[in-house]
Amino acid sequence: MKIRASVTLLALLLSAGAWGQYPGEGSRTVRADFVALDRNRDGYVSKVEALANPEVHKRFATFDADKDGRLSEAEYTAAMEDNEKRILQDSVITARVKAALLAERGIPSLSISVETYEGGVLLKGFVNAADIVSRAGRITAGVAGVRTVHNNIGVRQ
């Protein structure tokens, strides 16, 4: 009888329930990044917990579909998918701007760096003439998907 009790106790200790399984986890996989943000392990990400990820915090109200002040894993996943989509769109815009600058004669496109965030394009670098700065800005503004242009290209004589 002692052996049966020992085996039962061992099985109980090795079960997920005995080790405090993550709320809502069940047999499915929980996103590791969601678990990392959920500091109090209640199965939700609060607005305070979202401070650890600026992109989630920024879009918190948008993706809190039930307006309960916290993100469920499904709401969090939707926010992350939206962020990944934005990153891809920004990458496409950056590539288009670089291609447009490269195609334009007289613009030293390798001297100009291009960064994009939410459709806003930042141009940085140094060129030899002021007219190149304005041309680069106009070309960038004409690229599909560009919302704003911050032209920080300097002139080096």
Low-confidence runs:
12-21
SS-based class: alpha+beta
Shape: elongated
- Number of helical runs? 6
What average pLDDT do the residues reach? 87
User: Total number of β-strand segments?
Assistant: 5
Main beta sheet? 3 strands, mixed
Strand order of the largest sheet: 3-4-5
Fraction of residues in helix: 40-55%
Q: Whole-Å distance between the termini?
A: 92 Å
What is this structure, in a nutshell?
The chain is of the alpha+beta class. It has six helices and five strands. The strands form two sheets. Strands 3-4-5 form a three-stranded mixed sheet. Strands 1-2 form a two-stranded antiparallel ribbon.
Overview of this protein structure:
The protein is α+β, with helices and mostly antiparallel strands. It has a 3-stranded mixed β-sheet with strand order 3-4-5. A two-stranded antiparallel ribbon has the order 1-2. The chain has helices at 2-14, 32-37, 54-58, 60-63, 73-103, 130-141; strands at 45-46, 70-71, 112-117, 120-127, 148-155. 45% of the residues lie in helices and 17% in strands. The model is unreliable at 12-21 (pLDDT under 50). The chain starts with a helix and ends with a strand.
Secondary structure layout plus pairing:
Elements: H1 2-14, H2 32-37, E1 45-46, H3 54-58, H4 60-63, E2 70-71, H5 73-103, E3 112-117, E4 120-127, H6 130-141, E5 148-155
Parallel strand pairs: 4-5
Antiparallel strand pairs: 1-2, 3-4
